[in-house]
Amino acid sequence: MGCAGSTPAKGDENTKKLQKPKPWKHTQQMTRAQLKQMRDEFWDTAPHYGGQKEIWDALRAAAEADLDLAQAIVDSAGIIIPNADMTLCYDERGAKYELPKYVLSEPTNLIRDS
Fold this sequence. Notes:
The structure is a single chain. By secondary structure, this protein is mainly alpha-helical. The protein is 40% helix and 9% strand. It has helices spanning 8-14, 32-45, 53-63, 67-76, 101-104, and strands at residues 30-31, 88-90, 96-98, 110-111. α3 packs antiparallel against α4 (67-76).
């Protein structure tokens, strides 16, 4: 993986194959609508805390995609994933991007619509 001038060994050791995040539980039960609102608020404000907007856009697309497509997105954007669950990411310039679990998967205590 890499651009011209990058060393393959460095890229390979810092990039893992993506995996689904481990199951997690939110502090309070929430509905799907509440989860969507939390996610929207995170993605709307995340670029204001640093990093490149293009990388944030790629991370959002990857977070909302299936694993194979997500892997293709992060690879093509040059995103370095030291944690296979995408909770911690870096761009090629070394900027850090932290993603909360709630944007990557649903909590185990999500209230299902009936």
